[in-house]
Design a protein that fits this description.
Layout: H1 4-10, H2 26-35, H3 37-48, E1 55-57, H4 61-67, E2 77-81, E3 86-91, H5 98-116, E4 129-135, E5 146-149, E6 165-171, H6 185-191, H7 199-212, H8 215-242, H9 245-263, H10 267-273, H11 281-290
Parallel strand pairs: 3-4, 4-6
Antiparallel strand pairs: 1-2, 2-3, 5-6
Helix pairs in contact: 1-8, 2-7, 8-9, 9-10
């Protein structure tokens, strides 16, 4: 029986080899930028057209250390600048419809805020946030290559909701418009598979080449690759054997718990890795809270 749960496994994506990984692959994107924070600063400055003096990772030194000791799961590019603005920078692999991508950003915003708000803290303590999705595909029919979204009053568009939340979509396949930052164009071209032809994209390219020559990083990726294959294959075959949604749900739930245990990632991260449909994620999160 086909449904949302079995669909998670039926079209299993091709997992690239270490040698094939590039800038638009989530694993390499996070590896390179997390180990070279100056690249994050430059990327933010190009996209936002503002000066960023410094950033700091929201993860602790212990979490960062663990992520480089063979667990195979890269921590998110979740950083904070000197003005206490927090950023979540994500490379979107594969293709997402505009609706699916928008709902994905909505889910990320919720998880982002929950993570940022300390237990018992008042909502007013939520920091200004900017979520940035880099997409090597068209968004909203490719009308633009950069979209910045905030909430405005429907009756009066001059009134901005002061929730201090911004969402930005960078679409490398979208049209370059007059307001496109000039320094962003080489990044769009690089995302589209063209040769690095600017100082910044050459720095990224050099960093990727450097990481690929580190044997420990190659082994870490192989561990990650093996675990993802095992989890997806196990869920796929279990769903086939059960032949019903209930069996697929239990199998997926077991895979989430196993992934969290073996790689020390969060439930939200496990759901993303296993590509569980966003509308279905709350059911799994609710179930995990009762275990």
């Amino acid at each position: 029986m086909k449904g949302e749960y079995t669909m998670v496994y039926e079209d299993m994506p091709v997992i690239k080899s270490w040698e094939e990984l590039g800038f638009t692959d989530d694993y390499m994107f996070k590896l390179v930028l997390s180990k070279h924070p100056k690249l994050i600063i430059k990327l933010l400055e190009i996209i936002l057209q503002v000066k960023v003096r410094e950033i700091r990772f929201k993860e602790t030194e212990k979490q960062i250390k663990n992520s480089y000791e063979g667990h195979g799961i890269r921590f998110d590019l979740y950083v904070e600048d000197e003005n206490n603005t927090v950023y979540d920078i994500e490379m979107q692999t594969g293709y997402y419809s505009s609706l699916r991508l928008a709902k994905r950003m909505r889910f990320y915003q919720g998880a982002f805020d929950v993570d940022d708000l300390a237990a018992g803290a008042d909502y007013i303590s939520l920091k200004k946030s900017i979520i940035i999705f880099l997409c090597p595909f068209k968004f909203l029919d490719g009308q633009r290559c950069i979209y910045t979204f905030q909430h405005y009053c429907q009756q009066d568009k001059s009134i901005l909701l002061p929730d201090e939340a911004t969402k930005i979509v960078i679409s490398s396949q979208g049209n370059i418009t007059p307001d496109t930052p000039k320094a962003l164009v080489p990044i769009l071209n690089y995302m589209n598979g063209r040769k690095a032809d600017s100082k910044f994209t050459k720095e990224i390219d050099d960093a990727i080449k450097m990481e690929k020559n580190i044997e420990a990083e190659r082994m870490s990726y192989m561990t990650y690759e093996m675990k993802i294959r095992e989890f997806k294959q196990a869920g796929y075959h279990q769903g086939k054997r059960e032949g019903k949604l209930e069996g697929a749900f239990e199998s997926t739930l077991a895979n989430i718990k196993m992934l969290m245990k073996n790689t020390h990632c969060s439930a939200e991260k496990a759901l993303t890795i296993l590509e569980v449909a966003v509308p279905e994620r709350k059911k799994y999160l609710d179930m995990l809270q009762t275990i």
